[in-house]
Design a protein that fits this description.
By secondary structure, this protein is mostly beta strands. The chain has one helix and twelve strands.
């Protein structure tokens, strides 16, 4: 006996497509990678200053609700003295996240989820990643000013 194929229900297909479009609109873009650019005076990812210095920065147009940012930081060793420090992330001049770099000559990997909703009305938002030395040697080291803090973004995604 031959099988009979039912004609497609066009209204049902339109309803399914509309639901999928609505779901996509609510979720926004799944993710967009965001580049950061080095700004250190030394042109490298290390800085030996005792005051905050910007290592990396970028400018974005905040069209999503969240910036997911992963960092990697390490304090170096001068002779036998380990260097510790602190880091911060700023939106323009507002500190939105901060933390420490322990004086253990080991990497730390902060993972941040930063809220962009207060900034969605602006056309450009500057994001800065800064570090400073808070302990360790004050002479010698990578650039002669003491121990240095190294840092870099691991990932930056707009969600």
């Amino acid at each position: 006996m031959p099988k009979v194929q039912k004609p497609p229900n066009i209204l049902r297909q339109i309803a399914d497509l509309q639901k999928q479009v609505d779901d996509l609109r609510r979720s926004g873009w799944e993710r967009d990678e965001l580049p950061f650019y080095p700004t250190s005076l030394h042109g490298l990812v290390y800085e030996d200053s005792a005051s905050f210095v910007t290592l990396w920065e970028t400018v974005l147009s905040p069209r999503t609700a969240t910036l997911s940012l992963g960092l990697v930081l390490i304090g170096d060793v001068v002779s036998t003295t380990n260097t510790g420090g602190s880091w911060q992330v700023l939106f323009e001049s507002t500190v939105v996240a901060n933390g420490t770099v322990p004086a253990t000559f080991s990497y730390v990997f902060p993972a941040l989820t930063l809220d962009l909703t207060p900034y969605r009305g602006v056309s450009q938002l500057k994001v800065l990643f800064q570090v400073r030395r808070t302990s360790g040697a004050t002479t010698g080291g990578k650039y002669g000013g003491g121990g240095a803090i190294g840092g870099s973004p691991r990932y930056a995604r707009l969600l």
